[in-house]
Amino acid sequence: GDGQYDLDNPEDAAAAAAAVAARAAARAAAAAKKRAKEGPPPPADLLPLPDGVPEQVPVVCNGTRGTLLVRPQRVVVGGHGMPASRFEDMCGRGGAKKWKSSLWATDAEGNSLCCMGDWLSARGLDKNELAKFAASYAAVEQRRLWEEEHPEQVQQEQQQQEAGGGEGGAGGAAALDDAAA
User: Fold this and answer.
1) Can you tell me the distance from the alpha carbon of 22 to that of 81, in angstroms, rounded to the nearest whole number?
2) 121 vs 104, 113, 118, 130, CA distance in Å?
3) Secondary structure letter of residue 52 according to DSSP
């Protein structure tokens, strides 16, 4: 666990977040190795957030501050991201297993406004909507990671699209959307 950290100390909070990030990086490397055998994921576009919903929300949990990334429901602390439930656990509230109650939205000065569950509900973001945004984010991120790992294949795809008039991929989906409008 991360019990050896004093989360009231910003350096310790950042160190705890770094430890979480290191474990996540190891899992990501294993997933990347698996992905390499599966071929390229399809291009994907992010679903737009509803009007008035920011990409990021400053949050606090048990005195530890972070930034919730709304789409993937991840919290960034000390430059390291983790699932909101993992942040809740790191902050000593893991037993609750209800990050939407444990994390509180804050204003620019760091004053608690309301629990994230209420914040999300007020913006029409229920469990199903959040799942759609998380899936959209994951698809885009999976493609981005694959492109980072395979720049030569990305270049080949781009050359094939240019030679073929740009059919297929995300551009083809956009063309279909335009045709349906």
Assistant:
1) 10
2) 13, 14, 5, 11
3) T
Q: Count the neighbouring beta carbons within 10 Å of the beta carbon of residue 35.
A: 17
Average pLDDT over residues 73-85: 92
How are the residues of the chain apportioned to helix, strand and coil, as percentages rounded to the nearest 5? 55, 15, 30
d(C-alpha 181, C-alpha 178), whole Å: 5
Question: Is 68's pLDDT higher than 90?
Answer: yes
Alpha-carbon torsion (136, 143, 38, 76), positive or negative: negative
DSSP state of 55: S
Rounded to two decimals, the pTM is 0.67
13 vs 20: CA distance, rounded Å: 11
Is pLDDT larger for residue 161 or for residue 100? 100
Residue 23 CB neighbours (<10 A)? 12
Number of C-alpha atoms within 13 angstroms, CB side, residue 99?
19
Alpha-carbon distance of 69 to 32, in angstroms, equals 23
